[in-house]
Amino acid sequence: MDILTLADAAKLIAQKKLSPVELTKACLDRVARFDGDLHAFILPTEERALSDAKAAEAEIMRSGPRGPLHGIPMGLKDIVDTAGIETTCQSRLLAGNVPAEDAACAAKLAAAGTVLMGKLTTHEFADGGPSFDLPKPPARNPWNTEHFTAGSSSGTGAAIAAGMILCGIGTDTGGSIRGPAALCGIAGIKPTYGLVSRAGVAPAAFSLDHIGPMAWTAEDCALMLQALAGHDPKDPASASWPVPDYTVGFGTGLQDVRIGVIRHFHETDYPVAPAAQAGIDNALAVFRSMGATVTDVTLSPLQDWHACGSLISITERASAYEEWARTRLGDFGERVQRRLMLGAMVSGVDYVQAVRRRRELRDELRLAMADLDVVITAGAPAEAPKMDAIPRWDLFDKPNFTMPFNVSGYPAICVCSGFGPAGLPVSLQIVGKPFQEAKVFQVADAFEKATPFRDRRPAMVSPVMAG
Amino acid sequence: MPPPISDESLDHMLANAGLTLDEAQKADLQTIHDNLAMMKARVRQKRGHMAEPAHGFAFTAEDL
Predict the structure, then answer these.
(1) Where are the alpha helices (DSSP H) in A163-273?
(2) How many Å lie between the alpha carbon of A295 and the closest alpha carbon of chain B?
(3) For chain B, domain boundaries
(4) Which of A100, A369, A371, B27 gives a 20 to 30 Å CA spacing to A388?
(5) Quick check: is A439 catalytic?
(6) Which chain B residues touch A338 with a CB distance below 8 Å?
(7) How far is B63 from chain A (nearest CA, A)?
């Protein structure tokens, strides 16, 4: 069976031309063939997947699908609680931890009729980097297994790119959805802060944490977000905001859409590789050709956003894991140990100054976007680096392009914008105003459908199509 | 460039945080002191007293 998008599979399932059981078996077959190399799964749940698929198929044959996610194989990052299924956060500290309840996002996807394929690889507690001293090996990039997936939603990115699942849950504190989306050549959106409940998901940094969809296309992410968004009193930061139709802008073109380019982020603050720059330039030409207006936007340097987010992240993480850091530091992997040690070096005053800076930066973005619908910049600086090229202290290596939108809380999606000289994907990041995900999806979907990049899969899973 | 962090200062910070590190871990932390200091400088701006943190504290109807 060809690898399908979520949207295409949903249409075929609704027409009763595609069996959820057969679709699930095709995905399980890819898990069996590829996961020995990719390590995208911490815990595959084959029996659960077949049971979910059979139940979905019976219900669909009886009364039609509940919605577009019914019968769709998906996976959950292993920091998402799953009732009765081990949830380890890829850490020795949680070995054998079996939650009693599903996280809110897991429950919503189950209610939508999805098929749970398993728990997906993550950096330990969604932090750190590719580590070889954790209970399971790090995920590898399906475009080239010597290369990094980015993280921390590393397994979700790898599993979707390899067609082992059609969609999955990622979490994003500084780019952990959008980084793997960028390096694995898929789509991943960090929604507006508070739009998707974090209840039942292990924290990384409270005020920067987001839960969101990852899938092959922006359209697939929109279908998934439709099921995930909404107020949840169990999440203290959950927003009470109406959930619109996220597909409303699809097929409407980009006439009169106002796009800003934060050019200095990716051209001078941290110049990206030529392939990434070409991807952005091409995207701007596509946007203009579709009727959008494009203007430059100037914000504070990328390094200011990165510093602000990093200091907040270091401190909030140290707070979340303080007790274990004091009593069981050696049970964490080395990378997380280093991150937790940093907490000792950031004072309370440093933290408050960072949170004051955060208000200034967010106001700056709000004013800059007053007459714009979206802004764009790079998703990642280049193609995926090799696994052994990730610095020990990666937090201090270079600023990333994703952190500004954790600091601001604005919705941001990464989509594939082409391929580099090594044949690995490069990406574009599209950022909207708070709760304006529909506009972000409109622009991202128009771009994907006007360009050929969604037709190409990694050679390991689709050797005929690649090249 | 900020002055390097002394062993005594680092030990004091670690004691406050309740962390027990070996000498190699302490040396590792000392290598990134400058990077962290640069980040701390970037979030300090000239600002007035009304430049409050991003997350304010306010009562809502639910508090009544």
Answers:
(1) 178-184, 218-228, 263-264
(2) 27
(3) 1-45
(4) B27
(5) no
(6) 28-29
(7) 14
- Neighbour count for residue A233 (Cβ, 10 Å): 9
- Copy the structure tokens of residue A126: 């969604």
Beta-bridged to residue A77, according to DSSP, are A120
CA distance A259 to A262: 10
Q: How many CB pairs under 8 A join A and B?
A: 92
Residue from A345, A346, A362, A397 whose CB has the most chain B CBs within 10 Å, to mutate: A345
Active site residue A427: no
Task: Identify the DSSP state of A127.
Answer: -
Per-residue pLDDT of chain A (467 residues; tens, 9 = 90+): 889 999 999 999 999 999 999 999 999 999 999 999 999 999 999 999 999 999 999 999 999 999 999 999 999 999 999 999 999 999 999 999 999 999 999 999 999 999 999 999 999 999 988 999 999 999 999 999 999 999 999 999 999 999 999 999 999 999 999 999 999 999 999 999 999 999 999 999 999 999 999 999 999 999 999 999 999 999 999 999 999 999 999 999 999 999 999 999 999 999 999 999 999 999 999 999 999 999 999 999 999 999 999 999 999 999 999 999 999 999 999 999 999 999 999 999 999 999 999 999 999 999 999 999 999 999 999 999 999 999 888 888 899 999 999 999 999 999 999 999 999 999 999 999 999 999 999 999 999 999 999 999 999 998 654 33
Contact partners, residue A147, CB within 8 Å, separation at least 6: A140, A141, A183, A383, A384, A385, A386, A387, A422, A424
- In the DSSP assignment, the letter for residue B54 is S
Place of tokens 């504190």: A173
Interface membership of A207 toward B (CB under 8 Å) = yes
Interchain contact, A353 vs B40, CB within 8 Å: yes
Residue type, A338: R
Using a CB–CB cutoff of 8 Å, tell me whether A32 touches chain B: no
CA distance B47 to chain A (A): 9
Any bridge partners for residue A187, and if so which?
A215
Query: Chain B within 8 Å of A318 (Cβ-Cβ)?
Result: yes
Q: Which residue has the tokens 């203007």?
A: A295
Q: In the annotation, is A398 catalytic? A: no
Burial of A214 (0-12, 13-18, 19+ CB in 10 A): buried
Give the CA radius of gyration of chain B: 18
Taking CA atoms, A263 is separated from A24, A308, A334, A441, in Å, by 43, 20, 36, 21
- For chain A, domains (ranges, CATH) are 6-455 (3.90.1300.10)
Half-sphere CA count of A251, side-chain side, radius 13 A: 2
| A210 φ/ψ angles, rounded to the nearest 5 degrees | -135, 150
